[in-house]
Amino acid sequence: MASSSNTPRIVELAAQISASVAELQEHLSAQGVPSPTFDEDSPPFLPADVSHIRAQLLDATAELHEVLTEPLMLIFKFGAISNLISIDTICRFGILDMIPAGGKLSFLEIAEKTGLSKVEVRRLLRHAMAMRILKEPEPEMVAHTKVSKFMSIPYIQAWVNFEGRDTWPACTKVADAIEKWPASEEVNETGFCLANNGQSVFEALGADHTRAMRFAGGMKSLDHVPGCGEKAVLSAYDWASLGNAYIVSVGGSRGSAAMDLANNFEKTKFLIQDGAMMIAGAEVPQELKGRVDFMEHELFAPQTVQADVYFFRMAFRNWNDKNAVNILKAQIPALRPGAKLLIQDACMREPNVAPLCEERISRAIDMSLKTFFNTRERYLDDWKALLAAADERFVIEKVVQLEGSLLAMLEVQWDVSSVKA
C-alpha cells in the first residue's frame, strides 16, 4: 500500500504498529489475559474481541517486514519448501511427544530414541527452531514453545503428515496438470492425480485408511481457522429467527454441528443426512432424542424429506460446478415455497477488502482445492451463477459474513414467484 502523505511508509507502519500494540495490550490487561509470548504455556489464541486489532497488527508487521526484505529473500521466504523438511520429519519420528511438558531433552537423547544421528537431529531441530517450533533454552537441550506444543495435538500432527506426504508431492504437479488439462474441472485431472499414478483424491483416500486418517486430521485442523470451526456455526447466522424450524443438515457428517445448534436453539429440530459409512454408529444424546435424528442419504440422491431449511456446511467446495449444480437440483423434489437453503462456505472477497492475513489464508485454501479437487473458492457472482444454473427459483436473500471469518452464510430462498411467466 502506497503512502498517502509525505511521511515515509515505513514510518507510518511503525507508528501504526506502536498504536495497535498499545490498544491490544490495553484490551488484554482489562480482561486479565497474558500478553502473547512463545513460552510453552502461553495461550495459543487471543480473545475473539481483539481479532480486528490482531489483523491490523499482522498486516502492518508483515508489510514492514516484507518491504524491508530484498526481493530474492522475499521469494525465498514464500517459496521455501525446505521449511516442510524439518516439520515433516519431526512429526514422522514422533519427536514432539518425546519432549516432556515443561521439561527438556538433549539432542543426544532424542537421537538415541529415534535412531537418528545426533548431527541429523541437531540440524533438523535447529531449522525448526528458526521458525519458533521448539527452542534451545541451553546448549544442546530442546524444549517446547507454544507452537510445538500446539503441533503435538494428534490431529495437528496428522495434518502436518498429510502436508508432507500427500500435499507436497501433489503441489509439485499442479503446473503440469494445468499444462496437460487446461481449464479442467475434473477431479481425475489434478496435480494430485499426476503424483498418485492417476488416482483421484477420492480413490486414493478410499483405498488407504491411514492416508484417509491423515486427511481427516487436516479437516479437523480447520476448526482453528477463523470462522471455520464447528463452534463458529452458532454465531454465523441468526438461528433464533428460524423459530421451530425443521432443519435438514445435508452431508452433515456425524452431526456435531447440528447437535450444537439443537442444544442452543431448543425450538429447532434436525435431521442429519450423510452416507451409510459416515453415520454408522452415530448416536443422539439422550437430551436431544426426539429433536435430532440421522438418515442415510447420499449427497447426489433426490431429496425425499420436506423441511423448512436445508443446511449445507462446506458441502460444495470439493465439487466442481457441474456436480454442485446436481447437488442443488437434487433438493428440488422436496422443496416447498419459501423453503430456505443455508450454505456455509467461502464467499471470496475481492483483493484488499479483507485484511491481508485473512486473504492469504483464503487464497492458500483456494490453491489446495485446485491441487486436490480441481475446484475453487467461489465469489458471490459464482454462487449466483451456480444457483441460477440449477434453477432460477433459487434466490439469494442475503449473505452474512462475520468479521474475521473466512466463511460466509448464504441464505437462499426457494422462490416460486421468481419464475418468469
Strand content: 5-15%
* Series of secondary-structure elements, N-terminal to C-terminal: HHHHHEHHEHHHHHHEHEHEEHEHHEE
Q: Which secondary-structure class do the elements indicate? A: alpha/beta
Residue share in helix: 40-55%
Please tell me the CATH architecture of the largest domain by its name.
Answer: 3-Layer(aba) Sandwich
For the CA atoms, what is the radius of gyration?
24 Å
Counting DSSP H or I runs of 4 or more residues, the number of helices is 18
Kindly report the spatial arrangement of strands forming the biggest sheet.
Answer: 5-4-3-6-7-9-8
What composes the largest sheet? 7 strands, mixed
> Per the principal axes of the C-alpha atoms, what is the gross shape?
globular
Total number of beta strands: 9
Question: How is this structure best summarized?
Answer:
This protein has 421 residues and is of the alpha/beta class.
What does this structure look like?
Residues 88-150 form the O-methyltransferase dimerisation domain. It comes from Eutypa lata (strain UCR-EL1). Residues 196-390 form the O-methyltransferase C-terminal domain. With 421 residues, the chain is of the alpha/beta class. The chain has four domains: 9-76; 81-151, Arc Repressor Mutant, subunit A, CATH 1.10.10.10; 154-223, no CATH class; 229-352 and 375-418, Vaccinia Virus protein VP39 (Rossmann fold). It is built from 18 helices and nine strands. The strands form two sheets. The chain has a seven-stranded mixed beta sheet with strand order 5-4-3-6-7-9-8, with helices on both faces. Helix 15 links the parallel strand 4 (269-274) and strand 5. Helix 1 (9-31) packs antiparallel against helix 2 and helix 6 (107-114) crosses helix 7 (118-129). The model has no long low-confidence stretch (mean pLDDT 94).
